[in-house]
């Protein structure tokens, strides 16, 4: 077995791992990156980018369907060529992956080790029984994988995860999506708009990442107006069957009317969450403290675990599983592993997340649940609201669905966070995230310029509402004249 002694070993070559490797290399040349699968990052291969390509195709169909609302009538039947849709998805996906691979190719060959790493102790790793590494410091950046009930494996190749969708050569005729979270909502709606017969099922009533009851309720109704969604379904049975059209999956469930219903589908898409890959590291051989799910606990500003020379970053951690978070965490973990023992706190940005459905969902700063958990029922924060149903610019574009809640602190007026579903929520969330990171008050945010007519005027309406509830500004005026007509 080959023996190596290194300053830093980075386990994983995804977004967090690549960031950690580069950051550590700025302090020492003795760094290796261990990758057991293919390079290319979850985002580029099976996550952010291919899903947005599928969503973009679905949006183009939806725009045609909306055209009669403007008095515009496309001639003839809209034809969706599933093979061409998936061909573009895969071609562009491969292009994005290629950019990542180009950066990986620039890494010296001696710094890249292929295989799956397992801990022997706090400083020793074995890679596929071909290499033994003694590392002074370790960064765990092993990412995550889809998680679903083990009994579903009985469905065989009729059970798929989001990774599998982007290898399709053609669109199927029917799919049951289990899990109305980020992945389930995005893919479910996109497939529905591309002509696939889709039903979305969930348990517990959760919709996306939302925690504000009013915003979540609005989101549920909005999606139910377009496609079948039951966020708390009662499934009686789910089994693989043979039919004249080939193997299918038969799902028997209680529908919205309380009746037993049957849905026969080509595939069951499991979008029921992801689990960190740390369970495959033999991490029990280390002294690292784990949470109740078996995931290493890390200090969020240094990414240091309970073992001072072991760091963790990205989806492998018990923190937010988003690309920009993985990149930040990887840089922090790698920097501290490289400069150890001179540990430094890294920049942690305000929380921001988006779901690319239509309407879009977004969250910024502290969520409603976090605020109520932290502040309880003391009335220490107020909620401002705006509906996009009568918001001027939104109505002009026939995109007037949605609601925005902004949260602010009593006394100081500081902006604390927001949850929303609505048009261009991805852009509104960025404005609010910048304000949150700058620790702005609602009054300071209202001093910023707002053009007319734009969707952002809805943000101003919500801010004015919360400012009035904080008793820091005047009561809301219906059809405020300085907003122009329709605001």
UniProtKB/TrEMBL annotation:
Pyridine nucleotide-disulphide oxidoreductase dimerisation domain ranges (all copies): 353-462
EC number: 1.16.1.1
This protein's UniProt keywords: FAD, Flavoprotein, Oxidoreductase
Gene3D superfamilies for the chain: 3.30.390.30, FAD/NAD(P)-binding domain
Cofactor(s) demanded: FAD
GO molecular function (one): mercury (II) reductase (NADP+) activity
Nucleus in keyword set: no
Domain FAD/NAD(P)-binding positions: 7-330
InterPro entries, sorted: FAD/NAD-bd_sf (IPR036188), FAD/NAD-binding_dom (IPR023753), FAD/NAD-linked_Rdtase_dimer_sf (IPR016156), Pyr_nuc-diS_OxRdtase (IPR001100), Pyr_nucl-diS_OxRdtase_dimer (IPR004099)
Family listed: Belongs to the class-I pyridine nucleotide-disulfide oxidoreductase family.
Name this protein carries in UniProt: Mercuric reductase
Source lineage: Bacteria, Pseudomonadati, Pseudomonadota, Gammaproteobacteria, Vibrionales
């Amino acid at each position: 077995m080959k023996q190596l002694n290194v300053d830093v070993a980075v386990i994983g070559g995804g977004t967090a791992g690549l960031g950690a490797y580069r950051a550590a290399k700025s302090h020492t040349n003795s760094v290796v990156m261990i990758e057991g699968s293919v390079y290319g990052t979850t985002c580029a291969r099976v996550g952010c980018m291919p899903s947005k390509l599928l969503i973009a195709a679905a949006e183009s169909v939806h725009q045609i369907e909306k055209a009669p609302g403007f008095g515009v009538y496309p001639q003839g039947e809209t034809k969706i060529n599933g093979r061409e849709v998936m061909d573009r998805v895969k071609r562009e996906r491969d292009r994005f992956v290629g950019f990542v691979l180009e950066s990986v190719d620039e890494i010296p060959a001696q710094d890249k080790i292929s295989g799956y790493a397992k801990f022997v102790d706090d400083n020793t790793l074995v890679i596929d029984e071909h290499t033994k590494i003694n590392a002074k410091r370790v960064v765990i950046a092993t990412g995550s994988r889809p998680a679903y009930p083990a009994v579903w494996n009985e469905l065989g190749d009729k059970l798929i995860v989001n990774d599998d969708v982007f290898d399709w050569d053609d669109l199927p005729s029917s799919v049951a999506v289990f899990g109305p979270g980020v992945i389930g909502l995005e893919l479910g709606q996109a497939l529905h708009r591309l002509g696939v017969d889709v039903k979305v099922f969930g348990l517990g009533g959760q919709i996306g990442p939302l925690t504000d009851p009013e915003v979540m309720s609005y989101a549920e109704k909005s999606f139910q107006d377009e496609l079948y969604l039951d966020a708390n379904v009662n499934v009686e049975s789910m089994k693989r069957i043979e039919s004249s059209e080939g193997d299918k999956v038969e799902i028997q469930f209680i529908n919205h009317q309380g009746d037993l219903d049957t849905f026969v589908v080509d595939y069951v898409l499991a979008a029921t969450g992801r689990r960190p890959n740390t369970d495959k590291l033999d991490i029990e051989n280390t002294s690292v403290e784990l949470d109740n799910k078996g995931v290493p606990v890390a200090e969020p500003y240094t990414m240091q675990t309970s073992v001072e020379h072991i760091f963790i970053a990205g989806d492998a951690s018990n923190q937010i599983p988003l690309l920009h978070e993985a990149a930040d965490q990887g840089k922090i973990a790698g920097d501290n592993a490289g400069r150890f023992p001179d540990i430094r706190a890294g920049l942690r940005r305000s929380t921001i997340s988006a779901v690319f459905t239509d309407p879009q969902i977004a969250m910024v700063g502290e969520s409603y649940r976090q605020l109520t958990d932290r502040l309880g029922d003391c009335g220490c924060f107020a909620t401002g609201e705006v509906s996009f149903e009568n918001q001027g610019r939104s109505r002009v574009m026939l995109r007037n669905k949605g609601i925005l809640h902004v949260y602010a602190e009593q006394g100081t007026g500081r902006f604390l966070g927001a949850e929303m579903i609505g048009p261009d929520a991805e852009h509104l969330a960025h404005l609010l995230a910048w304000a949150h990171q700058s620790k702005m008050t609602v009054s300071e945010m209202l001093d910023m310029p707002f053009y007319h007519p734009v969707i952002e005027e809805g943000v101003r309406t919500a801010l004015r509402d919360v400012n009035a509830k904080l008793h820091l500004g005047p009561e809301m005026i219906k059809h405020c004249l300085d907003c122009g007509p329709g605001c």
